[in-house]
Amino acid sequence: MAELPDKAEHFIDWYLEAVEVAGLTDKRYPVKGMNVWTPYGFQARRQLDGLLIRGIEASGSRPVEFPTLIPQTEFQKEKEHVKGFDAQVYWVTKGGETDLDIPLVLRPTSETAMYPIFALWIRSHKDLPFNVYQIVNTFRYETKTTRPFFRIREIHFFEEHTCQLTDEAAAARCQENLATFQGIAEALALPYVASRRPDWDKFPGAYYSIALDLPVGGARTLQVGTIHHYRENFSRPYEIRYEDLAGELRYVHQTTFGLSERLLGATVAFHGDRKGVVFPSSIAPYQVVIVPIVSQNSGPISTDAARTLADRLRAAGVRVYVDDSEERPGAKYYLWESRGVPLRLEIGPREAAEGTVTAVNRLGQKQRIGPGKLEDGIRQALVEYDQALAAQARESFQKAFSVAHRLEELQDSTTVRIVSWCGNEACGHQIEQAIDGAVLGTPEGPLPIDPGSPAECIACGKREATRWVLAGRPL
Ligand code: ZN
Question: N or C terminus of the chain: which is more exposed, having fewer CB within 10 Å?
Answer without folding.
Answer: N
